[in-house]
Amino acid sequence: MAPSNWRAPVSATSHCDCGRHLTAHGRTDVMALVASHVEHRAVCPLHNAPERRAAA
Prior knowledge:
With 56 residues, the protein is of the alpha+beta class. It starts with 10 loop residues before the first strand and ends with a helix. The chain contains 2 helices and 2 strands. It has helices at residues 27-43, 50-55, and strands at 11-15, 21-25. Strands 1-2 form a two-stranded antiparallel sheet. The relative contact order is 0.17.
């Protein structure tokens, strides 16, 4: 989601049940964090556990 003012400070946080917790500040770092979060979801052993996949 884009901020209402493009000069507004931007930050994001990425959480995972495996203990991964990252934060980013600034547009470039936030976009990199989003890409990293998506990549992590594909390889995280907790996210891809059979019992979690069955619930989806």
